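#lab-general

N.A. 3:47 PM
ok so I finally got the sequence cleaned up, no stray characters, all 295 residues accounted for. can someone with queue access submit it? mine expired

B.Y. 3:52 PM
send it over

N.A. 3:53 PM
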Amino acid sequence: MELRQLEIFEAIVRAGTVGAAANALDRAPSSVSEQLRTLERSLGVTLFERKSRGMQLTPAGQRLQGWARRLLETSGDARSDVAATPVEVRLGALETVMAIHVPRMLGRLSARRPGIHVKTAPTTSRVTLLDDINSGAIDAGLLLDLGNDLGDLGFDPPPGDFAYLDIETVPLSLVVAASHPLAHRGSPEVDDFEVYPLVGNSSACSFWLAANQMFSPRMRRTEAGSVVIAKAWTIQGDGVALLPDFAITTELAAGELVRLPVETPRLELRLVWCADREDRPGVRDLLYAIADPGR
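B.Y. 4:20 PM
back already:
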């Protein structure tokens, strides 16, 4: 079993056909097919079922997929170490997290591990982020969560050996417009909110999921499509919104929004990675840099 055969195996998995894999690798399809047959003969198993719409992994192929990724990663790490090439870490995050929180992390990483090169991968999908961590497409990812288990915020993580570290708390505030009836009530009760719409980004948004932990399904929801629009609608309308403090500082100071005196969920900025890749260069350095107790 040779590394180039594993690279070809992975290329076929990604591309779906021998022809597409050959194009991606800039090799002849006959060469790719021969390397695959050689790999299958050496293992004594069939790795793909040849279907009319492409190549489908057999159970043996599915087992090899995880091994191939780990072996190729280990080979790359060894090559980088021996050649003393800069270590690269691939960091993914949801777009809001990438814009607000990642620069501080990169600054800390640069100060403590100046030889690390970070390649960022923003995404709008939490599912995509976790799938990319699981597959090895990225080394680690940042998302918002709460509780003791990944997904306690209200989402289902895909199967995988995930590990995580909470880096910092992201404060949330329940806000209304200055003209809203609840803005002048000392201590609103939960029932007081149910006659007003809850304005948020979308049902998959972390802040929306946090609001679901505060309010019953009976409360009417209005999807604005973004935090910026949800904030603008709340200022202009009669709804209430659960928003991160970093997004409403200016509006609170200007008196356009009023923070209500109610307890809100405690969101954490959570770094997630695969436990079996924790010792990889880059991942190890990233964890070292962000685990600074002086943060």
